[in-house]
Amino acid sequence: MSAKSKEYGLEVKVTLLWWLCRVVAALPRWVRYGMLVPFVAFLFRSIIHYRRVVILRQLQASFPSYSEKQIEDICHRYYNHLAEMVIDTLSLAGLNDKKRAQSTEFVLPDDFHQSIEGRNAVVLTSHYGLWEIAYNLYLQTPKHTIAVAYRPLSNKVMDRLYLRLRENRSVALVSSQQFMRYYVAHKDGVEGKNVIVGLISDQNSPYHRGCCWHNFLNHDTLFFDGGEQLALKFKLPVYYLELERVKAGHYRHKYTLIYDGVEEVAPHEITERYARCLERTIVAKPEYWLWSHIRWKNRPSPEREEKFYNNYKSL
Length: 315
Known about the structure:
By secondary structure, the protein is α/β, with parallel strands linked by helices. The chain has 11 helices and 9 strands. The protein has one domain. 46% of the residues lie in helices and 18% in strands.
């Protein structure tokens, strides 16, 4: 099969899936959340047992003091959330700016707009709630372009579909491998607008030179520190974004300043603040974090592990 034929076949598949998403988005709310979500949750929980072993193992390790019943309850609620997230993601195909505004509440610091006026900023969020709508911040910041780092999927059809679902004239989607280069090239603005960098920073980071282990959910954990690197190098304020589910398809976006771009901080301190904020969010309502994604693949060496624990004993 020629390259042209493969490309055509790929586009056909993406287009068919796109129109499936449009159909789901056009369904009445009571059908999407009253019928489809329970059905998908039932499939995940009771038919295919979607990554049940992974979910339970990670919950038990993260909350060792919880009883078996408590862990099972969180797992049950997680499947409900996962099903709702699937329907919400498909429904992105039918969201215009008006519908996005209706589905989003913003809780911003009092001086938020003044602090980012005429400057760039960093927003750190996570795989919590419906992170696909995190870039709705553009509704509040028309003078900024939202530059979002994403990791391309190995499945080309799904990768293109997600790019299409995320597409927005006020948002620049940039591969995570190219993101630092992108920011350096656009640090003075994009089409006259300043840039707000959006990073999902709770992915399983590979071990790299200069990284630091953080105590997180009863694990030694590596976090991506690209947000901290940008903030320190270019003196940018950093905000933590918590996505709080209000009801199905409706989220409250809470922004908390964790670094003002000026304060003198120790190495890895900004990432540590982010980790503490995220941990509090997850402990409060654990079912909304992405437990079916395999976490904590990396473990520190015995020497680093000893240093890690000695550091935390002194805190």
